[in-house]
Amino acid sequence: MIIGIDIGSTTTKAVSIQKGRVIHKVKTKALDAVTSATGALGKMIVENHIKISDVRRIMITGAGATKLRADLFGIPTGFAGEIESIGIGGMFLAGRDTIIITNIGTGTAIIDARRDRISHLGGSGVGGGTILGLAKKLLGLSEFSGVMELAEQGRLNQVDLLMEDIMETDLSFLNKENTASNFGKMLDSARNEDIALSLLNMVYQVIGMLSVFAAQSRNTSKVVVTGNGSGNLIGRRVLGAITGIYNVSFEYPEDAEYTTAIGAALSWERIL
């Protein structure tokens, strides 16, 4: 059994891989990398009744990986590059060996993954951290659940300037409901619900357009979405609207939020 641990800036995820299958998955939160890694590993071992002797190796990746320099619990421990881990995990979950991956975490990374090469195409500081940071200041919220609850009741036309506000007819491939300017309207009557929805809309539109440009640069019409932000249902709706305009589709594989941890575990076999 190989265990992969992805130490993120807010959440640490761990998976166990055996015979090419994901067996166990856990998530934890902690203030420092060592506590995060040992906590995730301990939780996996205790909750799933895993014997330490059954674990051949631990592979660690993510923002906090560099802070760990010793074997964990006496188990041989190695380190995997984050970009490589996203690429390997993405290909594994998508079942293809040539894909474009948009990994949405605190920020966003876009990766060209191929069996013989994994490269970082670019990305953005816009991601989940952007949503939480602005929500804290604008809405007084510090949890995603609160933002999502508000956003489900929001109306974009109270905050965003839409094409219908400046055009009487559809413009080329854009229709009247498309955004002309994020937060470009902001009516005095705008509620927190409207602001929450517009915030999510802005972040996922930026991510979606960067993904479209990446896909077009590689002559593909498919993007695999991974990371914590892949499961955001409002975000998926925003990306779906972009699909309708630019004919680039977004795929959401099962266990997408564990992609990096999965890739870290599988990287050991790739190294061998």
How far apart are the first and last residues' alpha carbons, in Å? 15 Å
In the CATH hierarchy, the architecture of the largest domain is 2-Layer Sandwich
Query: What is the H level of CATH, i.e. the homologous superfamily of the largest domain?
Result: ATPase, nucleotide binding domain
Identify the overall geometry.
globular
CATH class of the largest domain equals: Alpha Beta
CATH topology of the largest domain: Nucleotidyltransferase, domain 5
Helix-strand makeup class: alpha/beta
Share of residues in strands: 15-25%
Q: Main beta sheet, described?
A: 5 strands, mixed
Total of helices:
8
Number of domains: 2
Q: Report helical residue fraction.
A: 25-40%
Polypeptide structure, described:
This protein has 272 residues and is an alpha/beta fold. The protein folds into 2 domains: 2-79, 2-Layer Sandwich (Nucleotidyltransferase, domain 5); 96-254, Nucleotidyltransferase, domain 5 (2-Layer Sandwich). Helix content is 39%, strand content 24%. It is built from 8 helices and 12 strands. The protein has helices spanning 33-47, 82-94, 128-139, 144-151, 163-166, 192-217, 233-246, 259-271; strands at residues 2-7, 12-18, 21-28, 57-62, 77-79, 98-104, 108-114, 117-124, 161-162, 179-181, 222-226, 249-251. The chain has a 5-stranded mixed sheet with strand order 3-2-1-4-5. The chain has a 5-stranded mixed sheet with strand order 8-7-6-11-12. A two-stranded antiparallel ribbon has the order 9-10. The longest helix has 26 residues, at 192-217. It is globular. It starts with a strand and ends with a helix. The model has no long low-confidence stretch (mean pLDDT 92).
